[in-house]
Design brief:
- The structure holds two protein chains of two kinds.
- By secondary structure, chain A is mainly α.
- Chain A contains 15 helices and no strands.
- Chain A is 69% helix and 0% strand.
- Chain A is globular.
- In chain A, helix 3 packs across helix 5 and helix 8 crosses helix 12.
- Chain A has one domain (27-326): MetI-like (MetI-like fold, Orthogonal Bundle), CATH 1.10.3720.
- Chain B is an all-alpha fold.
- Chain B contains 15 helices and no strands.
- Chain B has helices at 2-28, 33-43, 48-58, 66-78, 93-128, 133-147, 150-164, 187-224, 227-234, 239-251, 253-257, 259-277, 282-291, 295-323, 325-328.
- In chain B, helix 2 packs antiparallel against helix 3, helix 5 (93-128) crosses helix 12 (259-277) and helix 8 packs antiparallel against helix 12 (259-277).
- Chain B is globular, with a radius of gyration of 24 Å.
- The two termini of chain B are 14 Å apart.
- The chains are: A mainly alpha, B mainly alpha.
- At the A-B interface, helix 6, helix 7, helix 12 and helix 14 of A face helix 1, helix 2, helix 6, helix 7 and helix 8 of B.
- Chain A: It comes from Thermogemmatispora aurantia.
- Chain A: Keywords: Cell membrane, Membrane, Transmembrane, Transmembrane helix, Transport.
- Chain A: The chain crosses the membrane at residues 41-61, 105-126, 138-160, 172-190, 217-241, 278-302.
- Chain A: It is found in: Cell membrane.
- Chain A: It is a multi-pass membrane protein.
Chain lengths: 329, 332
């Protein structure tokens, strides 16, 4: 982070002190310090990490296969018990193992869709703003048109067409559908940021030194809006995860595989609500909400890093420290 | 005026894009979905004549060149023909959608309006009392609520208030047994409608509230630090006047700019909410179309939703140009 107008406000001084302190630390300690100073990012990443660990370690956490042949005698859905901490489905599958293995599918689809979508956002947003002129006209028209069309109905059309065309119901189709319906918002945000960045001196300087276009875009401009890219990435992830669960809830994904969406699909199909089998739909929903909430929290943290005016009042300790240092100076 | 014409042009292009998209995508998919679809119908025992008619309706006759298929398609759309539904067989798609659109518009309209008003007022309050206990606790709590998928929120509310407590009805848009002849203009009917719409609307409001609160709060925080507000306070104007006539009036612009994006999200959310509540809107029919691979219904549903969202956005821009004179005079 740059410190521009030195000593104008206490926040800048704090940043300055922090910078001076950081010289003695390695990058790892700096990252830890960032997490300590920004509890929102820390809490969000912590929750996310828990879920990733649960997905990776699923075979260690549960002895039951997620959707294979039922090891237990199928007595219909059973409420949580000592053997099945989250109960079983009407086919006798263990709900916790469905959740743990399902996390793999759901998080992976969200990850693939968000990553691909962010690539599109960067390419469209940056090249539209950087080249300007006719290219900008055409690209921003495209961005705005995609942005204004409702995303979920579009995704439903695409997914159900893909099903009908014999591509089959699979996770890849869902990820692609989400990728192509989620990039427009981020592209517009990045475009407007790039528009203001490309007039700065360092870009003009690089241009007059004869740097190649792709280097200008990806090595000069992109690193300067990385906070924005990060926050749109997180936002896209939240959207993709929610939409993925929704599409699978509608039965447009592969419902024979356990994922958070297909758990809800079967719960709805088997009338879990009417029969009062809350354990069939509560865990999956809570997981989605926790992951999305955690990611949103991370985004708040990024926002506060990038825009100090949103920060809450400074911690009391830091304020005291600043005061004593000011007196010494 | 020039501004409005330009925006109208943009929305026409967007509409054309949606229509063309609808035409091209099935033809781009590998393995010819139309062919598969028609093959599926043959298994269901439709007569050859019906299938030939359907094929013609989809414009999927391989002997006709593509550009001609496109013109036929546009022509059919202009005459309001969206094809025949196969899940509710002889009913035209246009008729199904025309019956269900008012319910969706009602649901989304009321939810968006209430959520916008409540959310903006809360945002103003939080910014004005910045740092108070409710400003530090409520926004994160609301954000967490909005991170819950709409349809799951709907499931949970339905379970608690519909099934367990039986406070609200659990399906349909009005009491079918009391009004077997369909909608009518009477107090009882409206009461029944309100009762059935209450839970879906609450779901949508909870899901979309946080966004309005946060946009308004952040814009207000920035606006409140401006000098003219200090001046207004120094003049001794009453606090309410300072907050609403001086600060909120300027801080509301970002909320209206983000209207189009959030409208899309609320519409998507409402489609899912309708499915959970068996509410006879567009979403419910989209879902039925998707699960019974009723192609014409899904595509028609998408077009109608897209058209409605585009129209609503255009309205929002009209409001924006009234609120912000810079836009009207082309200086933005």
């Amino acid at each position: 982070m740059q410190v521009t107008n030195l000593g104008e406000s206490p926040v800048d001084t704090a940043a300055l002190i922090e910078q001076a302190d950081q010289r003695h630390r390695g990058p790892f300690l700096n990252a830890l310090r960032l997490l300590y100073r920004n509890p929102k990012i820390a809490a969000g990443l912590g929750i996310l990490l828990l879920f990733v660990l649960m997905a990776l370690a699923a075979p260690l956490l549960t002895p039951y296969p997620p959707d294979g042949p039922q090891s237990q005698v199928a007595h219909g859905a059973q409420p949580p018990s000592r053997e099945h901490i989250l109960g079983t489905t009407s086919l006798g599958q263990d709900m916790f193992s469905q959740i743990a293995y399902g996390a793999r599918v759901s998080l992976l689809i969200g990850f693939v869709a968000a990553t691909g979508s962010t690539l599109l956002q960067v390419i469209f947003g940056l090249s539209s703003a950087y080249f300007g002129g006719l290219i900008d006209e055409v690209l921003s028209l495209l961005i705005n048109v995609v942005l204004v069309l409702p995303g979920l109905p579009l995704a439903i059309v695409l997914a159900s067409l893909a099903n009908a065309s014999g591509v089959g119901k699979n996770e890849f189709v869902i990820a692609m559908v989400l990728l192509f319906t989620s990039w427009a918002y981020g592209a517009r945000v990045l475009r407007s940021q790039t528009l203001s960045l490309k007039e700065r001196e360092f870009v003009t300087a690089a241009r007059s030194m004869g740097e190649m276009t792709w280097r200008m875009i990806f090595l000069e401009i992109l690193p300067n809006e990385i906070a924005l890219v990060a926050s749109t990435y997180v936002g896209t992830f939240v959207y993709a995860l929610g939409a993925e669960v929704a599409l699978e809830f509608l039965g447009l994904g592969d419902v024979s595989h356990a994922s958070w969406g297909s758990i809800l699909f079967w719960a709805q199909l088997n009338g879990a609500l009417i029969t009062g089998q809350w354990w069939l739909f509560v865990p999956a929903g809570v997981c989605v909400a926790l992951v999305c909430g955690a990611l949103t929290l991370v985004n708040f943290g990024i926002d506060e890093l990038a825009n100090p005016s949103l920060r809450q009042a400074m911690p009391r300790k830091l304020r005291k420290l600043l005061k004593t240092r000011a007196v010494v100076a | 005026m020039r501004y409005l014409l330009r925006r109208a042009g943009f929305y026409l292009i967007a509409l054309w894009a949606a229509v063309t998209f609808n035409f091209i995508i099935p033809r781009l998919m590998p393995g010819d979905p139309l062919q598969n679809y028609i093959a599926k119908l043959q298994n269901q025992g439709l007569t050859q004549a019906t299938i030939a008619a359907l094929r013609k309706e989809f414009g999927a006759d391989p002997s006709v060149p593509l550009w001609h298929q496109y013109l036929d398609y546009l022509n059919a759309l202009l005459h309001g023909q969206l094809g025949t539904s196969t899940s509710e067989f002889p009913t035209p798609v246009a008729q199904i959608l025309a019956q269900s659109l008012p319910w969706t518009i009602c649901l989304v309209g009321i939810a968006v309006l209430l959520s916008f008003i409540i959310g903006t007022l809360l945002g103003v309050l939080f910014a004005w009392r910045r740092g108070s206990w409710y400003d530090t606790t409520l926004p994160p709590a609301l954000t967490f609520l909005s991170a819950i998928p709409y349809f799951w929120m709907a499931l949970a509310l339905l379970y608690v208030f519909g099934m367990m407590l039986s406070w609200f009805p659990t399906s349909d848009a009005y009491d079918l047994s009391s009004f077997p002849n369909g909608p009518e203009w009477s107090l009882d009917f409206i009461l029944s409608m309100v009762q059935h719409a209450a839970l879906p609307v609450i779901t949508l409001i909870i899901g979309s509230l946080a966004q309005w609160v946060l946009t308004m709060r952040n814009a207000m925080v920035t606006t409140l630090s401006e000098d003219y507000l200090l001046m207004a306070q120094a003049k001794g104007l009453p606090a309410l006047r300072v907050v609403f006539a001086y600060a909120a009036r300027n801080a509301i612009l970002p909320s209206i700019t983000s209207f189009s994006i959030s409208l899309g999200l609320v519409v998507s959310g409402s489609l899912l909410t309708e499915i959970v509540f068996n509410y006879p809107g567009i979403g419910y029919h989209l879902f039925r179309g998707a699960s019974e691979s009723d192609y014409a219904l899904v595509e028609g549903g998408f077009l109608v939703v897209a058209l409605t969202v585009l129209a609503a956005n255009f309205l929002a821009e009209l409001v924006y140009s009234v609120l912000d004179p810079r836009i009207r005079h082309g200086r933005a």
